[in-house]
């Protein structure tokens, strides 16, 4: 009986050594998996950030183009307004429409102090409109 136990233990030991050796070869190393996982995460993060930067850059370029167009429009409108309000053009338009206008004299000018206009227009008089 002792010989049987010895043979059993021996067979178990052989099986354990075989399984230990084969199992160590088949297991994927954790360190390598960690490195691959971190590299994959870093590359995906880089691609995400790169894509967002490109999208924001295109958005900024389009907004800058719109800003430049609006600036050009403002300059054009200011030029037109200054030409329309030039004294020569005003006199020409008055003559075209047969309007007789003269510069007011000093006694025709009504001067308002700031306090009067402030009270008159800035404060609510209490009357409600469009109820």
Provide structural commentary.
The chain is mainly alpha-helical. It is built from four helices and no strands. The longest helix has 55 residues, at 30-84. It is rod-shaped and about 140 Å long.
For the structure shown, list the relevant keywords:
mainly alpha
Mean pLDDT rating: 81
Give the strand content: under 5%
Query: What series of H and E elements makes up the topology?
Result: HHHH
> How many distinct helices?
4
Broad structural category = mainly alpha
Oligomer: single chain
Could you name the ranges where pLDDT drops below 50 across 5 or more consecutive residues?
Answer: none
| CA radius of gyration | 46 Å
Alpha-carbon distance between the two ends? 112 Å
| Main pleated-sheet profile | none
Give the % helix. over 70%
Report the principal-axis shape: rod-shaped
Strand element count: 0
Topology, element by element:
Blueprint: H1 2-26, H2 30-84, H3 87-96, H4 114-122
Summarize the structure.
By secondary structure, the chain is an all-alpha fold.
